[in-house]
């Protein structure tokens, strides 16, 4: 039975790595993209002072960009939220499995000590 605990703990460690490393790392990329969208929106806001005679049939370029910006940031935010919620649920699942069996919990702790506690990668 101890062998099965070790294999299961390795699987749980891999799931924990996804929950605490991979998904949060990708989520940070989405967060960075959201920041860049906000920077771009700030730059475009200055275009709202363009005289109305230069506006198109659907309003100013700033208004058109604003609609596009809102759509893009909605998708980015929704995806980031889904990644974060999935990571939390996956981590909770790993913890619940480990809490039900002391042998698995001990082996998972050993995996953490041996391989390191999973954490997000730092992105630049």
Class by alpha and beta content: mainly alpha
Q: Secondary-structure element order, as H and E? A: HHH
Helix content: over 70%
> What is the arithmetic mean of pLDDT?
88
Q: How far do the termini sit from each other?
A: 44 Å
Number of DSSP helices? 3
**What's the number of structural domains?**
1
Strand content: under 5%
Summary keywords:
124 residues, mainly alpha
Please describe the topology of this protein.
Layout: H1 2-45, H2 61-100, H3 102-115
Helix pairs in contact: 1-2, 1-3, 2-3
Description of the structure:
It is a single chain. By secondary structure, this protein is an all-alpha fold. The chain has one domain. The protein has helices at residues 2-45, 61-100, 102-115. The chain starts with a helix and ends in a 9-residue tail after the last helix. 13% of the residues are buried.
